[in-house]
Amino acid sequence: MAIEDVIVAIAMEAEAKPFIDHLGLKKDESFFPPHTPFVAFTGTHNQCKVTVVFNGKDTVYNTGVDNVGTVPASIATFLALNKMTSEAPDKEHLLINAGTCGGFKRKGAEIGDVFLTTAVANHDRRIPIPDFVPLGIGKLETVNATKMAEAFSYKTGVCTTGNSLDKTEKDDELMLANDASVKDMEAAAIAWSCKLHNVPFLGVKVVTDIVDGGVPTQDEFLENLQSASKSLQGALPKVLDYVCGKTHSEL
Ligand code: ADE
């Protein structure tokens, strides 16, 4: 069946807004429960219903910054997927998680590169009890988008997720074991919500910093955030045009 209902989940408002404006989407005030910080914009594009969701601003710790990390991402996408699949159970759905990431130079990543995920896993969920290890790592295959990657000359690879922008030596060990090409703070959590709803997941990640490059992540991230966001804004409309109306096996 052809994909006709797409959620685009983005953690940071500044990354979501240009795409929302580009598509001319309208804010849906009743999409999320009113006590949540999450925000949804909806509309149609070609044959597809498109819903862009972002995680809103923090009001719990009074910082006012974007709600980054796995907890807001998994809850916002769970609510969105629950609504999407119950309102249109017969439609073919896809969730695209778009945003910035760190890239590994050992896997060929460079600043500004667009990566499509092949799988996701966690690198900060260490549970050294044998039966729990696979749950902690939480590795999930994602949509096979090799044809799209070839069509647009995007790179592909595993996205490893953790709740920190920087990393520890232990993270390094687990990110290597995950065979990660890119590192983010949401993908594995969102893919978990997708799995519960049987909705395919695709990560579209743009590199702001090189994880194995020796420069402090926060400095490189802030330096490249604007140019990487431009790269994301170039990629997202192309990805949406490509997936709408295609079957999953055509991606
Ligand atoms: N987003 C952008 N760069 C990142 C990094 N190095 N780790 C996690 N999330 C990121």
Automatic annotation (TrEMBL):
Domain annotation Nucleoside phosphorylase: ranges: 6-238
CDD domains for this protein: MTAN
Chain ranges passing through the membrane: none
A single MF term (Gene Ontology): methylthioadenosine nucleosidase activity
Protein's GO biological process: L-methionine salvage from methylthioadenosine; nucleoside metabolic process
Pfam families, sorted: PNP_UDP_1 (PF01048)
Full protein name: 5'-methylthioadenosine/S-adenosylhomocysteine nucleosidase 2
